[in-house]
Amino acid sequence: MNQRMEKLEIRYSYLQKTVDDLSTVVIEQQKEIQELRRLVILLGSKLREVSALQSESDPDEKPPHY
């Protein structure tokens, strides 16, 4: 009975370590996701600015390299 209890305690310790490690990974991934969302929003606004500038120009105007 004592050996069985010891094995369960060891198993529990490994499981607790695994849960802690996974929790750390999830926290890091959440930080990365938040940063990526911020960058997507920033890039989207830049793209809209460029698109707005291009739509303001004359569509029949030839590019400068002609």
* DSSP strand count: 0
Parts with pLDDT < 50 across at least 5 consecutive residues: none
Overall pLDDT metric: 91
Q: Report helical residue fraction.
A: over 70%
Question: How many strands, which pairing sense, and closed or not: the largest β-sheet?
Answer: none
Number of helical segments with 4 or more residues:
1
> What spatial form do the alpha-carbon principal axes imply?
rod-shaped
- Structural class determined from secondary elements: mainly alpha
- Based on CA atoms alone, the radius of gyration comes out at 28 Å
Binned strand content: under 5%
Instruction: Report how far the terminal alpha carbons are from each other.
Output: 89 Å
Order of helices and strands: H
SSE map:
Elements: H1 2-56
Characterise the protein shown here.
With 66 residues, the chain is mainly alpha-helical. The protein is built from 1 helix and no strands. The protein starts with a helix and ends in a 10-residue tail after the last helix.
Keywords:
66 residues; single chain; rod-shaped; mainly alpha
Q: Brief description of this entry?
A:
The protein has one helix and no strands. By secondary structure, the chain is mostly helical. The chain is rod-shaped and about 90 Å long.
